[in-house]
Structure formats: C-alpha cells, structure tokens
Amino acid sequence: MANGLLIMLPGPTNVPDRVLRAMSKPLIGHRGPEFRELHERIIENARYAFQTEGDVLVLTCSGTGGVACAIENAITPGDKVVVPVFGVFSERIAETARRVGADVVEVPIRWGSAPRAEQVAGALEGAKALCVVYNETSTGATARELAKLCELAKEAEALVIVDAVSILGGDELPVDKWGVDICITGSQKCLACPPGLALLSISEDAWEAIRANPRRPFYFDLVRAREFYEERRETPFTPAIPLFYALDEALKIIREEGLEARIERHRTCARAFYAGLAAFGLEPYPEPEWRSNTVITVRVPSDVDVEALRRAMKEQYGVLVAGGMGKTKGLVIRIGCMGAITAREVLITLSALGASLSSLGHEVEMGEGLEAARRELGLA
Fold first, then answer.
1. 265 CB contacts (<8 Å, ≥6 apart)?
2. What pLDDT, in 10s, does the model give residues 224-268?
3. DSSP of 296-359, one letter per residue?
4. DSSP conformational letter for 291
C-alpha cells in the first residue's frame, strides 16, 4: 500500500517492496562497468518477458512515449497505416501516426469489443503497418484475435506494431511466435515496477523499415539506441538509473515466478473479479469474449454516481480505482488486475466496492460476491 491506499488502478499498480528498495541503491555512472552489467541483465530478462530472441530496448519515458517512439521510427509520411479503433488508446495510436504524416485508415470497432480478423483484412492491402492495441485500457477489452491479425498483416507484407502497455507480463503474448514486429509495454503495469520506463521489442523486418527512415527522431532514435547497446551496453542519453534498478528487480521476480505461472495468476484473479461482480449483480463493460484479465471494467449502476463511488472506496476503505475515459467516462470504474495481484487484493477490492455501493444506497449481496470470488481463487 502507498500512503495507506491499496492502488487498484489500471496503472500505476502496486509495487513489491523489494522493487521499491532496489531504487534506494547508490547511484552509478551510466558510462561505467556497473551500469553495463545492470543493463545487460535487464535486456536478457526482458527478452524472457517478451518471449523474443530479438532486440529489446529500454527507454526513459512513459508507455505512450514508447508507442510514439515506435511509430516515429518505423513510419514515414505517406505510409498507409491501418488502426482498429475501439477505445481511447487506439484513438491515440491513430493520431500519433497522423502526426508523422501517415495515411491512416481507421477500422471502427464497437467499444466494449475488439477487432476480429475479418474486420481488418480488407484494409491491409498496400499497408506499411498494422497498429493494434492488444489491451484497450479505456474499455477493458483484449484483442483476442491478435495472432490472426498478425498472420493477415504478414500476408499483406505489413509490419505489426502492438501497444501491449497494460498487458505484457499479465497475459499470453509470445512476440516471436505471433510475429509482432514492434511490441511496446510500460514499466508500471503488469511488470509491477514504478512508472517512467518503456520497453520495446523490435524484429529484423522492423529494423529494415527503421533504418530506411531518414526522419527518425533525435532523442528516440532507435538505430542509435541499438548501436549504443550492442557496442557499449549503454544508452545514448542519461537513463533513469533508480528506475533501471527497479526494473532489474521486477524482471528477476518474473523469472523466479515463471511467465506461465504469472499469466495463470492473472487469469485466476480476473476470473475471481468477474465472478464476484456477477454475484453483486454488476455488468462488466466489455462483451464476454473480449474481457481483459488485467483491466476489469465494470458498469456502475445508474442510481450511483461514479465519482461518489470512487471517493467512498478511497476515503472509507482505502482502495483506489479509476473512472472511465472517453465514451466510458461517468459510466464505469476500471480496476487494475495486474502485476503483484493476489487473492488478497481481489477480496479487499470487492469488499470495498460492495460496501461502498451499499453506503450509497445500492444494496448488493456482499457474502455471495465474496464467496463466488473465493471459489475461483480456490479458497472456498
């Protein structure tokens, strides 16, 4: 808990104490052997998390910065870029591509669902890239047909750029197996690390496009970043060293737990959330087949004010959840089920939600909700 609060946001999320402690290590020079050893270990463990044999780079910026970096390096003015749009973050990818001068073809998808392969197939002819948000944080919908989308893109000889900011490390995403060319995540989500770092995996096809781009950004030039890592195990500019310490520890924890076990833990906790919410009589925002295992988005009853509910959960029960974004603002709350999530956090959050709803005049079956969650958690 931070400041007495249990942070159940869809990022930043709760951070293990050993990760926080790692940030207190003495500073080191980023041009010395100590940093090179740290950096190399981070990259090797990040490859494990991404399930890739290719390059992974760490940038000192937010996840959104990582997405912008990917597009600004791989896309040039006039390139056709296909973006399925089904939430705020897919809207942002489309806008980012437009700002570099791309010919953006948006494929509109109903919010609460996610793109199917057949919805995107017809738009891919002549495309330079397909940009997909794997987990739409604004709606809690996961693009479960991502592997099929990657296949279609490869058939069309298009790159696949995936925003996996709120899902990598919490659900299945074998980057090399599925053929993702650039995959981006952020430190503060399923990796259970403080915010401030973005990680990108980059395929050889993506490198070909990046090297051919004469308009790469200066600070986020991925070719320069790759050269600095390969030649020196360094970064081109000053990195956030305390955050690198934290990421190193967070990635060690993922190795210790095992990626498969970590993903299954997220699935179990998500099932418990959905079972508890159903017993409360609450409806998740996404359609069943698209429901995320890392961002639980639930409709707030019409007789309850969203902000009053969030305030009650925070002030009365010490649990911090998020409201909606874009079309979902004022309609939903969003709960982070990611990173260091366990049965404890699930049950505390459901208890706070149920009690807060009751305090606001909307009665729920508290016992039934908690019992349903406990069954999914294997505690009943």
1. 257, 341, 342
2. 999 999 999 999 999 999 999 999 999 999 999 999 999 999 999
3. EEEEPPTTS-HHHHHHHHHHHH-EE-EE--GGGTTTEEEEE--SS--HHHHHHHHHHHHHHHHH
4. B
Token look-up 């808990």 returns 1
Each residue of 25-42: pLDDT tens digit?
999 999 999 999 999 999
Between CA 10 and CA 136, with CA 299 as vertex, the angle to 5 degrees is: 40
**Span 6-11+258-376: which CATH code?**
3.90.1150.10
Nearest in space to 361 (alpha carbons), one of 285, 305, 323, 310: 305
209 closest CA partner among 114, 364, 102, 61: 102
- Tracing tokens 């980012």 back to the chain, one arrives at 96
Q: How far apart are CA 146 and CA 327, in angstroms?
A: 24
Secondary-structure class of domain 17-257 per CATH = alpha beta
Whether the model clears a pTM of 0.70, i.e. scores above it, the answer is yes
Query: What residue spans define the domains of the chain?
Result: 6-11+258-376, 17-257
Q: Are 365 and 278 in contact (CB under 8 A)?
A: no
